[in-house]
Amino acid sequence: MAVSLKDAQDGDLGEVSEINVTPFIDVILVLLIIFMVAAPLSTVDVAVDLPVSNAQPQQRPDTPVFLTVKGDLSLALGNDPVPREALQATLDQRTNRDRDQRVFLRADGAVAYRELMDVMNLLRSAGYLKIALVGLEDTGQGAAPGAKP
């Protein structure tokens, strides 16, 4: 509790009911910095060379399911490697058997179309028919690296 010395009459000190917010602001700023540093670390980080697309980006769900086909044709669900024979069981576990949930499929640029279709056929045989292909956005700043005219 604070005391005001301004209006002291006859030795009575009046109480000040104002809250000092400076320590509160300091704590909030420290928490903001911590979250700004930690947020990029919580994203999916499998290195693939994605092709560029000029389609309009769609809104992402809160918890998207990413299936990645790496350059060596191995699969990863989120950040975790998944063998092809265990793909259905792992997807069922990740989606709580919700086969209407959209699966975001990413593939390295070096992956052949035939291999990508094989993975899409695996998803279809597992019962996941809603598949979205993921690529980089075309910003209109010229051709993508490695793109041929």
What distance lies between the first and last C-alpha atoms, to the nearest angstrom? 73 Å
The overall strand count is 9
**Rg over alpha carbons:** 27 Å
Shape: elongated
The whole-number mean of residue pLDDT values reads 81
Structural class: alpha/beta
Précis, in short:
The protein has 149 residues and is of the alpha/beta class. The protein contains three helices and nine strands, in the order ββαββββαβαββ.
Care to describe what's here?
By secondary structure, the protein is of the alpha/beta class. It has two domains: about 40 residues, no CATH class; about 90 residues, 2-Layer Sandwich (Nucleotidyltransferase, domain 5). The protein is about 25% helix and about 25% strand. It has three helices and nine strands, in the order ββαββββαβαββ. Strands 6-5-4-7-8 form a five-stranded mixed sheet, covered by helices on one side. Strand 5 and strand 6 form a beta hairpin. The longest helix has 17 residues. The N and C termini lie far apart (about 75 Å). The model has no long low-confidence stretch (mean pLDDT about 80).
